[in-house]
Amino acid sequence: MESNRVVFNQQQQPEFFQLVTKRVNDYFQENGKSRYANLGMKLKSVIILLLYFIPLCYLIFGDVTGLAMQYGLWALAGLGMVGIGLTIMHDANHGAYSSKKWINNMMGGTLNLVGAYNINWKIQHNVFHHTYTNILGQDEDIRKTIIRFTPKHPYKAMHRFQWLYTSLLYMIFPFVWILSKDFEQYSRYSKQGLYQRMGRSNRQALIEIWVIKLLYWPTTLLLPIYASQFGYGHTIAGFFMHHFISGIILALATQPAHVGEDMEYFASTDNNGNMENSWAIHQIKTTANFAEKSPLITWCFGGLNYQIEHHLFPTVCHVHYPEISKIVRATCSEFNLPYKSHRTFFDALVSHYGQLRRLGFKAA
Question: Which of 75, 104, 282, 305 is deepest in the core (most CB within 10 A)?
Answer without folding.
Answer: 305
